[in-house]
Predict the 3D structure of the following.
Amino acid sequence: MTKNLISMLDVKDNINEIIKHGIALKNKAKNGGKIELLNRKTLGMIFEKSSTRTRASFEAGMTKLGGHAIFLSNTDIQLGRGETIEDTAIVLSRYVDIIMYRSKSHKDMKELAHNATVPVINGLDNKEHPCQVITDLMTIKENKGSLKGLNFVYIGDGGNNMSHSYLLGCAMVGMNVKIVSPKKYWPDKYFIDEAKKFNVKIQITDNIEDSAKNADVIATDTWISMGDESEKEIRMKDFKGYTIDNKIMSQAKNDAIFLHCLPAYYGYEVTKEVAHGPNSVIFDEAENRMWAQMAIILNLLKIN
Ligand code: CP
Ligand code: NVA
């Protein structure tokens, strides 16, 4: 693994190892085993956007590992008043062992990582959400046993951070990926091209008819990501007809699972019936953020 986790591509050589470690940590902790591997280590968490899961799961995960996390909101720290990302990265690196950054901009994410002397984890930016997709792969593995050859279908905003990270993450573990989205919201070409390098079937379509046929995994995400609020009205129109409901779920394999990184907006990208239905694993997925991220932190700090 590179020093940082900025893109899914940073874990292409050890994704399976991280997933396995996340599952092992979860099982060990649940069976009463000791996992306090990060005595006196500190994680600094910079947030420029809202969060429930990312904040709570990183903080609780650090506590479980015997370390500590500091919550740094850009409305409180000097970064929000114009201190440079460069100086913020250099200073924080003097205090903490690892940094998690939820950023409005991928460019700022790269700049922070470039200037930090400790590992940096992307806790979501406008291009990718790697922690969530590593978690989702762990959740799929728990449910399906193995990942290779599974059919993954994402229906919704194809151009957002989740879609991009799914393209890379699912492809690198050997899953076939289908993104179903209005043309205007198709993924950046870069992510499609990178995903194709893993020699799996990559399909991008705007055709919602039969879109979930043969799917092992169906996923979606909000139609209005953080930062897209000004486009709400137009997006609501553009995504009409792309709601995942029982009819779409019935096209998938009987044992297909439904994923959503949350927060969900019921009646829009998915109905509550599906999200809280028998095929949904969304709350296990939310829990797994904590276990997967522990494995990510341990990997970046080179601690087993
Ligand atoms: N899935 C996810 O990242 O949730 P939060 O925005 O609540 O952190
Ligand atoms: N695509 C969503 C993910 C939220 C966890 C967003 O960026 O707001």
In short: The chain has a mean pLDDT of 97. The first helix runs from residue 15 to 30.
